[in-house]
């Protein structure tokens, strides 16, 4: 079977050699040497500061909302993974959905201002498939209304925008290192913030609210990355340039072979991509279902991602976001992972193209 993704794994010996350090010392978590080493190497590789490793990519969203002490309405995108919205609800805030731009599929900044009122406390937007939000326009609005900006940058490992890490934009960025993501530690994730006070607050919150061994400063949670996760990350990281190059080669092959009747995503200018996904947009949901079934017949798994539009979740209020509703019904992510054979890409394109005639 060809799945929509497959985790990149280094040679087993490289992982176990690194993990052995933790095994021999018997220190398995609570910010061991491997987690600290991974954070340092990630900061170097990504060219960022203020990165804190965590146990997954969802708790960093919840902790970001908590650390900023957000209460009330958070302006957000309906076109993302469920975690973006569930984190807002979990923290007791109200998601206010603003529609996306039809080309980049990120939140449409021209529609943000109309959604701001006295209860608005922040903007939480997603860089969809690693495609940057219009961060400059969003910053201008956020500054004008003194709103913090959280970016769900789960898809953005290694993405650069205007010559610097995309993680550097916004008040806080979060990333996921889930097994299905470009860089993976099985489960894992991080926050990135340039604000030192905020970093310290996030640090404390991710470790039960500890101030020191005996004192606490507010209710925290446990979001610590453990040494097993860090060992996997340390063994995967040296391969990341190669992983992204291979993803690019596969994406380029798709670009070449898919019929021009299929609409592809527009990437924002001045972006260095990580080729995290290969989304294609069909004319209708009917065509999408036909293609998807055709692929299934050949044991190939594409994924409806993102679907549904998040304003259709059973625990939020429906919103007037026609573009997100429409796109989410018509978009499909095709298989993309570093060791996907180019012959298989050709086969997939053949099946997709023939379903369209
Ligand atoms: C994967 C993902 C998350 C959640 O990350 P986990 O590490 O699986 O908890 C959040 N937001 C987006 C956009 C994602 O793709």
From TrEMBL:
<dbReference type="GO" id="GO:0000271">
    <property type="term" value="P:polysaccharide biosynthetic process"/>
</dbReference>
<dbReference type="GO" id="GO:0008483">
    <property type="term" value="F:transaminase activity"/>
</dbReference>
<keyword id="KW-0663">Pyridoxal phosphate</keyword>
<dbReference type="GO" id="GO:0030170">
    <property type="term" value="F:pyridoxal phosphate binding"/>
</dbReference>
<protein>
    <submittedName>
        <fullName>dTDP-4-amino-4,6-dideoxygalactose transaminase</fullName>
    </submittedName>
</protein>
<comment type="similarity">
    <text>Belongs to the DegT/DnrJ/EryC1 family.</text>
</comment>
<dbReference type="InterPro" id="IPR000653">
    <property type="entry name" value="DegT/StrS_aminotransferase"/>
</dbReference>
<dbReference type="Pfam" id="PF01041">
    <property type="entry name" value="DegT_DnrJ_EryC1"/>
</dbReference>
<dbReference type="InterPro" id="IPR015421">
    <property type="entry name" value="PyrdxlP-dep_Trfase_major"/>
</dbReference>
<dbReference type="InterPro" id="IPR015424">
    <property type="entry name" value="PyrdxlP-dep_Trfase"/>
</dbReference>
<feature type="modified residue" description="N6-(pyridoxal phosphate)lysine">
    <location>
        <position position="181"/>
    </location>
</feature>
<feature type="active site" description="Proton acceptor">
    <location>
        <position position="181"/>
    </location>
</feature>
């Amino acid at each position: 079977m060809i799945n929509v993704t497959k985790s990149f794994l280094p040679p087993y010996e490289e992982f176990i050699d690194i993990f052995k350090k933790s095994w021999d010392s018997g220190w398995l978590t609570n910010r061991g040497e491997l987690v600290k080493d991974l954070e340092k190497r990630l900061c170097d590789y990504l060219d960022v500061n203020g990165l804190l490793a965590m146990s997954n990519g969802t708790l960093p969203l919840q902790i970001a909302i908590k650390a900023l002490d957000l209460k009330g309405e958070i302006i957000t995108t309906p076109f993302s993974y469920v975690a973006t919205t569930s984190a807002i609800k979990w923290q007791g805030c109200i998601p206010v959905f603003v529609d996306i731009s039809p080309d980049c599929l990120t939140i449409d900044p021209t529609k943000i201002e109309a959604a701001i009122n006295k209860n608005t406390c922040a903007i939480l937007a997603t860089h969809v498939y690693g495609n940057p939000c219009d961060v400059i326009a969003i910053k201008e609005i956020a500054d004008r209304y003194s709103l913090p900006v959280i970016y769900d940058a789960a898809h953005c490992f290694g993405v650069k925008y205007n010559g610097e890490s995309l993680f550097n934009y916004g008040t806080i960025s979060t990333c996921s290192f889930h097994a299905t993501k470009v860089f993976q530690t099985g489960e894992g994730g991080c926050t990135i913030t340039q604000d030192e006070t905020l970093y310290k607050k996030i640090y404390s919150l991710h470790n039960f609210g500890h101030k020191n061994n005996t004192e606490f400063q507010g209710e925290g949670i446990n979001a610590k990355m453990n040494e097993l996760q860090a060992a996997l990350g340390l063994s995967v990281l040296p391969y990341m340039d190669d992983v992204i190059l291979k993803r690019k080669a596969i994406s380029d092959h798709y670009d070449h072979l898919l019929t021009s009747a299929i609409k592809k995503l527009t990437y924002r200018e001045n972006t260095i991509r990580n080729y995290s996904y290969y989304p294609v947009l069909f004319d209708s949901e009917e065509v999408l279902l036909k293609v998807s079934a055709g692929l299934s017949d050949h044991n190939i798994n594409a994924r409806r991602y993102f679907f549904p539009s998040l304003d259709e979740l059973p625990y939020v209020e429906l919103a007037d976001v026609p573009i997100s509703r429409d796109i989410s019904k018509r978009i499909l992510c095709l298989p993309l992972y570093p060791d996907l054979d180019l012959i298989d890409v050709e086969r997939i394109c053949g099946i997709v193209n023939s379903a369209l005639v």
